[in-house]
């Protein structure tokens, strides 16, 4: 179910320089020699705001300050992949593919912990290190979500057994918890209006998924069974649409990182709602 701090610049007038030192291995592995001058060559690649935003998913194409973005790779594909490898199977289970029910989610608890939790936390931390506040926040928050969700579903915790899987406390409690996730994703959706169209679509479908799950759990708590199957499949379908956007974005990011000449459109929004610049 593939970013940046904080000066606002014009797309036409500003670029970011990404530098890599490629030293001659036969001439000393980049060690300073010949009077302290490094033997090697420096390659500079100019990235426009749009290109930077495509790779880092940071609102408005704002670029990282300092040298961190030059020294480290792009952690964004790791975060997107970690999220997708949890949400995609869960969405399929909600839709009942291959005869599954929601009980099948217990088989992917390990993925929620080690892929969703650790993978998203790690990518979020790396985004924070290179100064990309928005994706760092999104990845780390959803890392916490998958850890908490895995804990809830883990059979050895016995949470559902203790409260009763059909009880008011269990289902209404989950519904109230998901309400605030729906609100948080709405905030992320608004913030993503300065990234790209694919990211906006991803958050739109994801927010709908959360609100459908809220309705589903409230109906279970109130013993309203008439539309449970429909709500479950609808939540799975919108979750799967979220994943389609995510997989597309992951392809764009991974292909872009390896230089594959396949410029898939994402619908750049880096100049949308640009802040007004004060006259000097």
Automatic annotation (TrEMBL):
The chain crosses the membrane at residues 78-98, 110-130, 136-153, 174-191, 197-218, 239-264. GO terms for cellular component: plasma membrane. It is found in: Membrane. The keyword Transmembrane applies. GO terms for molecular function: acetate transmembrane transporter activity. Belongs to the acetate uptake transporter (AceTr) (TC 2.A.96) family. This is GPR1/FUN34/yaaH family-domain-containing protein. It is a multi-pass membrane protein. It comes from the Eukaryota. NCBIfam families: AceTr_1. It comes from Leucosporidium creatinivorum. The lineage of its organism: Eukaryota, Fungi, Dikarya, Basidiomycota, Pucciniomycotina.
């Amino acid at each position: 179910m593939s970013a940046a701090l904080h000066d606002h610049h014009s797309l036409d007038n500003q670029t970011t320089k990404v530098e890599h030192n490629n030293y001659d291995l036969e001439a000393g592995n980049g060690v300073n020699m010949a009077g302290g001058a490094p033997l090697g060559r420096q390659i500079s690649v100019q990235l426009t705001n749009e290109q930077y935003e495509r790779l880092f998913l940071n609102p408005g194409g704002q670029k990282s300050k300092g040298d961190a973005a030059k020294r480290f790779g792009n952690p964004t594909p790791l975060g997107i992949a970690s999220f997708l490898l949890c949400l995609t199977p869960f969405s399929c289970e909600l839709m009942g593919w291959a005869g599954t029910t929601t009980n099948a989610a217990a088989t992917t608890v390990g993925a929620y912990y080690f892929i969703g939790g650790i993978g998203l936390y790690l990518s979020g931390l790396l985004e924070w290190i290179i100064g990309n506040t928005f994706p760092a926040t999104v990845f780390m928050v959803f890392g916490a979500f998958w850890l908490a969700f895995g804990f809830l579903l883990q059979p050895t915790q016995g949470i559902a057994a203790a409260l009763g899987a059909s009880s008011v406390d269990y289902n209404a409690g989950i519904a109230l918890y998901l309400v605030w996730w729906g609100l948080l994703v709405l905030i992320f959706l608004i913030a993503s209006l300065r990234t790209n169209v694919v990211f906006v679509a991803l958050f739109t479908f994801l927010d709908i998924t959360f609100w459908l799950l809220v309705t589903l759990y409230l109906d279970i708590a109130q013993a309203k069974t008439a539309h449970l199957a429909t709500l479950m499949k609808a939540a799975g379908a919108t979750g799967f649409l979220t994943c389609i956007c995510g997989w597309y974005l992951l392809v764009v990011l991974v292909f872009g990182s390896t230089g594959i000449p396949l410029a898939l459109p994402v619908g750049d929004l880096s100049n949308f709602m640009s802040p007004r610049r004060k006259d000097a």
